[in-house]
Amino acid sequence: MTTATAPSATSPAALRARRKALLQWIAVHALGVAAALFFVLPFVFVLLTSLMSDQQALTRDLTPDSWHWENYTKVFETEGFLTWWRNSLLYSGLGTLLVVVSSVPVAYALAKFRFRGRHLSMLLVIAMMMLPPQVVIIPMYLFWAKQMDLSGTLWPLIVPMAFGDAFAVFLLRQFLLTIPDEYVEAARIDGCGELRTLLRIVLPMAKPGIAAVALFQFFYCWNDYFGPQIYASENPGAWTLSYGLESFKGAHHTDWNLTMAATVLVMAPVILVFFFAQKAFVEGVTLTGVKG
Amino acid sequence: MSTDILPAKEAAAPAASGPVARGRNTLRSKRRRDALRTLAFMSPWLIGFGFFFVYPMASTVYFSLMRYDGLNPPQWRGLDNWAYVFSDFPQFWPALQNTLWLCVVMVSCRVLFGLGIGLLITKIKSGAGVFRTLFYLPYLAPPVAATLAFVFLLNPGTGPVNSLLEAAGLPAPAWFNDAAWAKPALTVLAVWGVGDLMVIFMAALLDVPKEQYEAAQLDGAGPWQRFRHITLPNISPIILFAVVTGIISAMQYYTQPIVAAKVASGKMGGSGEVFVPGYPDDSTLTLPQLVYNLGFSQFNYGAACVIALVLFAFSMAFTALLMRRRGGLIGSGD
């Protein structure tokens, strides 16, 4: 505790104030620990169950009697699991790359160009951002499956990402607004073309915003369940981890230990990525709602 | 610096910045060049907007008036699909009721809890960074994995939660296997992942001017009065933002209820049994699930498009609400 010691620290009033501050410190931190337990215990129980023997996972025990690390090897040896990993990485990696590349120029135009229809474009970006994917899924599915014959692959999910994503455009624009116009104007006066201004001047300053967008997009693809369910369900070779995990439970009906191990393996990459990029991510969350 | 969500109206007028025009022709050609440049930069999104929004929306309206199963050519049916969904389709009203329940109960629980955790984190002095990370982590858990974990944690037979509840002498409900408890169980899951709201509320709470608290304290205002008269008015736009975006995502609620219902009922991919969404007893049905169910299980594309349009109308109505209040909603003015 860091209460400054007042000169009259021994007077009864000061003692009372210090006691009150100490009690408040204890109350706040006790609440903090209780909340932390609520947030962390589910992870702990999942982890502990993933290390139990299959019989013990069906009991009420909370901690394993013997530690079965081989559960994780078993999960990796499950047919398809490695393919789902590869597909998840492909979908998330390629999707993120395409969204960033295609959304940056749009966000730049919306933030720094003055043109007729800018207001309307921004309204439409927000409308698209709030649109549930299910609203347009029937025509989209009919297009990709019947016209392009691409059902059973992840391409119907990846290709649209080359045409900007409303959420990425919105978030990047909010970020680019915080970069003073003077930089852009100075570059223009120096005879720098718009594309060069964007690439050389604005992009280096927008790195945190781009990092946040890239993370959100990566997580979105990694977590996507609806997309793979629509387009890839007929072909297990195209499943992603998020989609395959559920059928993993179906195939290992009573093996809660293996299912929990698989669950850990789906959560782990996201949490690892978060630890490496925590700052950019939290900044991004704040940017979505509060700051402009 | 504009903190507004949208550019000001007057900004839409073409403002020729840069060197003042040397003549009419150069001005006109500069304008044309600017327009082309804007078009080039906007082009990915313009194509995407046309192809992934305008075209499928128009097509959805078209199919909502047709009878179409994906095999036979579409047949004009007027408003038959609409009549079917509203009066004969047995799952429509339960799904709407569930959505209403989620909008009221789940959204309020998330907002209250998020605000509480946000307040708590601003008061924690020691190890604030660690606490913040721990509180935030569940928000990141992939929805399918988190749902699977919670179906296990809350399973009535051997789940750790019910073991603990029984040990404490408390009633142990069947959670995802009981129609009355399935939505509360989903609410627990949603409250667990409250990290996004925590961060937003935390930022808003830290933005409240310190002087206001100091002045109130000098006037002898207690903690509750300070919260009621200073904190609350200052963060009310953020609360509204959290409620409206919460409602929008409650209407789109899909992955968690469908995975929970599949896993809890034991009828999922690989088990060989046909899954009927909404388990138990339609209690976890939501509108997006009906689009899937009608379109991709029953091949009734017409009726699926009707549900899609209902979903669209609701989403856009609440988005409009969000936009109308944008002045107070996004940031604290310019």
From TrEMBL, chain A:
Gene Ontology CC annotations of this record: plasma membrane
Residues annotated as transmembrane: 25-48, 89-111, 123-142, 154-176, 197-220, 256-277
Claim: Cell membrane is one of the keywords in the record: yes
Any one GO BP annotation for this protein: transmembrane transport
Alphabetical list of Pfam families matching this protein: BPD_transp_1
Keyword Transmembrane helix annotated: yes
Record-annotated ABC transmembrane type-1 domain positions: 85-277
Domain of life: Bacteria
Membrane topology: Multi-pass membrane protein
Keywords, ordered alphabetically: Cell membrane, Membrane, Transmembrane, Transmembrane helix, Transport
Compartments, record wording: Cell membrane
Entries under CDD domains matching the protein: TM_PBP2
Location, primary (coarse class): membrane
InterPro entries: MetI-like (IPR000515), MetI-like_sf (IPR035906)
PANTHER family membership: ABC TRANSPORTER PERMEASE PROTEIN MG189-RELATED, ABC TRANSPORTER PERMEASE PROTEIN MG189-RELATED-RELATED
Family the entry assigns: Belongs to the binding-protein-dependent transport system permease family.
Descriptive protein name: Sugar ABC transporter permease
Organism of this sequence: Streptomyces filamentosus (Streptomyces roseosporus)
UniProtKB/TrEMBL annotation, chain B:
GO biological process, alphabetically ordered: transmembrane transport
Residue intervals passing through the bilayer: 38-58, 99-122, 134-154, 185-206, 235-254, 301-322
Compartments, record wording: Cell membrane
Membrane topology per record: Multi-pass membrane protein
One term under GO cellular component: plasma membrane
PROSITE patterns cross-referenced by the UniProt entry: ABC_TM1
Alphabetical UniProt keywords: Cell membrane, Membrane, Transmembrane, Transmembrane helix, Transport
Residue ranges constituting the ABC transmembrane type-1 domain according to the UniProt record: 96-322
Domain of life, per lineage: Bacteria
Alphabetized Pfam families for the sequence: BPD_transp_1
Keyword Membrane: yes
Stated family: Belongs to the binding-protein-dependent transport system permease family.
Descriptive protein name: Sugar ABC transporter permease
